[in-house]
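Schema walkthrough. Field components (list of strings):
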Amino acid sequence: MTAVKDLTADQAERALIEKIQAGFTVESEEDMTPGYKKALLTQLTVQGDTELMSGPAYYLAARDAPTINSRIAVIAIVHDELGHANIAYRLMEDLGVDKRWLIYGREPHEFKHPYGFDQPLENWAEMVVANGFFDRAGICLLSDVHENTSYGPLRRALVKVDREEILHLRHGESWMRRLAKAGGEAREALQRAVDWMFPMTLEWFGLPDHLKRHSDQLVYRLKGKTNDQLRQTWMAATVPLCESIGIKVPAHYDAAKGEYVIDYPFPCQYDPEAKRWLFDEPITWDQVFERWKARGPMNQRYVEMIQGKADGLFGGRRW
Amino acid sequence: MIYEVFARKDHHQELKHVGSVDAADDELAKVYAWALYDEESWVEMCVVPRSAIIPVTEHGRVPVWGN
Amino acid sequence: MVEIASGESLNAACRAALKNLLSAIADTKLLLGYHYGEWTFGTPVLEASIANCSLSQTELGHVRLLHGILKSHFDEDPERLLESRPPREMAGVEFLDRELPDWAAVVAATLVVDGALTLALHSMRESAFLPVRNVVDKMLEEERYHAHHGRGWFRALAGRGEAPRSTLKERVEAALRSVEIWWGPEGEPEDALLVSEGIKSRSNSELASQLRRDLAELAAACGVELELEGTAQFDGWDPRTRRRGDSSVNEEILYHMRGSKNQIFKLT
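Field assembly_structure (string):
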């Protein structure tokens, strides 16, 4: 895309890109070019906001946890997620961004988390599928960053993050197995959750590669894999899991192609009130971006939870 | 104020830098370090105000902590 | 020193008294766990959210631990304690019965209510009753951070000008009045028995004085004048609920804590 041309046209940018390709690790702001810093801050914003917004989504589900053990487990997950958000924001703060503004100063629609965390998780099945699917997506994205990033402080910070995300994922997957095995209403709820959350996560990985060949993040080696490669990694874990517990998903492995194939027109329309994907209504990616930009049903509520009475006596904007 | 957080897993391991926290005072820095960096049951954890750290190496602005 | 290894070895009166005390601590911790969970959001800084989230986990962990002791040694059914007991039978500190209205109330709960429980646990460090003594130090180690958080934020709010300081004062005094009732009247027979049998090292009135002293010292260092002297009335006080009158915890809080919405997911 155009960004790449612009970058390589600039001598300093080109020099940094070449250094990075040769294995250079960026450690301080002085090592950065404006283009690098911008791409890094964009990545950290998305990373921090995603972790942050999973907090209220998971907490509202944890609040009604079926048992004290499951309550503690999910509150521990919320705790990890907020800690991860804090790590991303601390890295940004060291690059001169106002952390208080990041958390308490932005409008709900200005956060850069995926559309999946604008949705309500209304029962325990949805909670654990979020761990199984959304946290799995988080690991696919972050472990790729961890392995490839040229930014030293982020690489070091991700050791803790990766390790904890794997625990969330195991929590989700073991509950998905339990619910499938339990049968009856619990299993039906699990299938209903998978029905809307599987396509939701597929969309999360963004534009397919044939529409987006290059990104600043790849050029600066802030990540290593393309959107489609990450989507494949995610399906390679989730499709076999669901198949093994007899839960249906709209994707399958195509042995001839050697990859996972989505079984519906991708992307397509979504009805957030009914939590239903309209497989007979294909849309363009521009329409997807419009839907994301308009934000989902819980965006306002989740941000209000985080910010609290931000202008009040004990508010985050005054603190 | 920013505090750097250091910890060691057991008595055979070196004290290592595990992260950083923003806190209004030393007492809150202790809680935040404990709450944020709970990935291990550390045998030792301490916090140091970033402003108290004196760089020894001379090139650039290294160390850049930021985790 | 006498060592009592199991609930059956306690005399009947002592066993009843200890069961009431442990249930009351567990009930209060359950509510602290709830409120810290709720206040994982809407705090003045993100770090405080994360700290509250940790505090919620440790409180709920302690509930689980205490319920285990109540089950093994006092024939209690943890599921009954949590899920089917009428709210009127619960013995939490009244300050926690409703949603905490603001951040100052959360700081007050941490400093005063959580602090009171820590003192109660501390009085059992050398307990003759081994099942409790064996777990107290682990709980107290975690409680240290709760105390830091309460004290740190008391100091921070006290230093933020008149309005936050006066709200803080009001909330801390309200929490203390509520805790005074929970401690019970001076010389209360069940508490006296627990002390004389070596289950606790200090009576609740001594612990109450200690709490007031600690608060006075902190407040003085921060330039806050607290009204600390108790005016609690105890007629009709019930050792089982540790309160008088018929107040009880908000049903909505219990609805959440019982997992009522997720009945079909209570798998065995």
